[in-house]
Specification:
This protein is mainly alpha-helical and 482 residues long. Helix content is 65%, strand content 1%. The chain has 21 helices and two strands. A two-stranded antiparallel sheet has the order 1-2. A hairpin with a 2-residue loop joins strand 1 and strand 2. Helix 6 packs across helix 7 and helix 16 crosses helix 17. The longest helix has 29 residues. It is globular, with a radius of gyration of 22 Å. The relative contact order is 0.10. About 2% of the residues have low confidence.
């Protein structure tokens, strides 16, 4: 019989920790004297007690490690349970959101998608602003651990190619995850502190600098203003661009750098390709604005840099309504959102390494056609790519496109127009944040969508954040057989 106790124990601990973290925005609201602190007090008690009771009730089932089935289930349920409890402050707080809106905001935060259904962000209580940032910050570090520990071991989406990075965790997933999480936490916290100090030096308030540092390093994109980063133009855009790029790099390279090994960081072909793509996109958008007479001079470069990096990394900030730049820029922004950053980072979408493996496979196939009797294998960073990795990557591409198309069709069936359906599905599956069009574009939000569409988008955020297969496998009969 399938044992749920180890899964329940870990989820219980994480939920209890989430409840404890609600004391931070509670303290901020108390200090601000805005009368909103009881909301976080109630949410903290309910969340902490529920998590603690679940952990106590299931602790007798904790063994040496987790089975494959337990690991897949845990990975998915964590990203359902935490948004469920994270939604409480929105549901009973100053936003007066109904349950679907509260859960949407929490799922968007924890999955670091950055889509929002809230308006009047400037007037939110300080505690809620901080809570939005904290949720994205937790989700960012959580997805790094998942990408570095769980997905390579579970052979999801070609991530097994990174098993050679020194993380041999099979059969010891939880203890090894804790060790890796400690190393990551030092780097993650250091980047967040540096980013926050830079924002503060650029003129942001302590609250804005802190919250935006969290959402920048998490590549989440929640901002404290309805105008997103258009309210923080100038130096803040350059700072955000730099730290979004840093957050989109593989954190395993930072771990190695901290250990005194810098060569892997500078020799990683994925990093080199990522920066090359970013440079080309910024150059194209800068030239396009110049040709169209938009944002001349330094402003054009700054807007191109900030918005291109934001969408490429899946952060989702916006400092301008780039849908008004013309059809070329709209098409470019749509396509760059499908690329994403590097594997093992806080960024989202398909990831650069999968495109590298795709083109390596295409190149090998072309050479086979030209020389039928030759033996040609795809290569990645000088190494032959195993067949199971190639197969896993191709499966990911197919599932990604099928999921995107299926979600777009379902959204269309709820009454949304074509642009909103397709861009909304892309924003959810790729965890980008804003879509396209007047309603959900960079100048709008998701508040006006119907409830069915919002639930569908929540499912899309979850599936996309966990690399598709780790969720889909739970719905197959063979997976649950002993």
């Amino acid at each position: 019989m399938f044992d749920l106790r180890p899964v329940g124990y870990v989820i219980g601990l994480l939920v209890a920790c989430l409840g404890a973290s609600m004391l931070v925005p509670m303290a901020l609201d108390m200090a601000a004297g805005n009368g909103h602190w009881p909301v976080f007090a109630q949410a903290a008690i309910l969340t902490s007690v529920t998590g603690t009771l679940l952990a106590l009730a299931t602790r007798n089932g904790v063994g040496e490690g987790l089975t494959i089935q337990q690991t897949f289930l845990l990975t998915t349920l964590v990203w359902v349970a935490l948004p469920l409890f994270g939604a409480i402050p929105f549901y009973v707080g100053a936003t007066q959101a109904d349950f679907v809106d509260a859960f949407f905001e929490a799922m968007s935060g924890m999955s670091t998608t950055g889509s929002t259904v809230l308006t009047g962000l400037n007037g939110l209580p300080d505690g809620l602003k901080l809570w939005r940032g904290l949720m994205q910050w937790f989700g960012g570090i959580g997805i790094i651990v998942v990408a570095m520990v769980f997905l390579p071991e579970l052979r999801v989406g070609g991530m097994q190619i990174f098993r050679s990075e020194g993380f041999d965790t099979f059969g010891k997933i939880l203890p090894r995850a804790g060790e890796i999480a400690r190393n990551i936490s030092v780097i993650y916290l250091g980047l967040t502190l540096a980013c926050g100090l830079a924002y503060y030096a650029a003129g942001q308030s302590v609250l804005d600098a802190t919250t935006h540092a969290m959402t920048t390093i998490a590549t989440g994109g929640f901002a404290n203003s309805d105008a997103s980063f258009a309210a923080y133009e100038g130096a803040s855009e350059y700072i955000a661009s730099a730290f979004m790029l840093l957050a989109a790099l593989p954190f395993v390279r930072y771990v190695q750098l901290l250990a005194g090994t810098a060569k892997p960081l500078f020799r990683d072909s994925q990093i080199q390709t990522f920066f090359a793509i970013a440079a080309i996109l910024v150059a194209c958008l800068t030239a396009w604005q110049y040709a169209q007479g938009l944002n001349p001079g330094e402003a054009g470069f700054r807007k191109a840099l900030f918005n291109a990096v934001s969408i490429l990394t899946g952060t989702g900030y916006a400092s301008d309504d780039y849908t008004l730049w013309g059809s070329f820029s709209v098409a470019l922004f749509f396509l760059m959102g499908l690329i994403g950053g590097c594997a093992g980072s806080t960024s989202c979408s398909i990831k650069v390494f999968r495109f590298q493996l795709l083109f390596a496979s295409i190149k090998a196939q072309i050479r086979r056609i030209h020389s039928p009797h030759g033996i040609f294998q795809p290569r990645y960073q000088g190494r032959t790519v195993p067949e199971d990795v190639v197969s896993s990557v191709m499966t990911f591409f197919v599932l990604f496109l099928v999921s995107l198309g299926g979600l777009a069709v379902l959204l269309g069936m709820t009454g949304l127009d074509f642009i909103t359906s397709v861009s909304g599905a892309t924003a959810a599956i790729a965890n980008i944040g804003p879509g396209l069009g007047d309603e959900i574009g960079p100048a709008g939000n998701f508040a006006g969508l119907n409830d069915t569409a919002k639930w569908l988008l929540c499912a899309g955020m979850l599936i996309g954040r966990l690399e598709l297969l780790s969720v889909y496998v739970l719905f197959t009969v063979n997976f649950w057989r002993p």
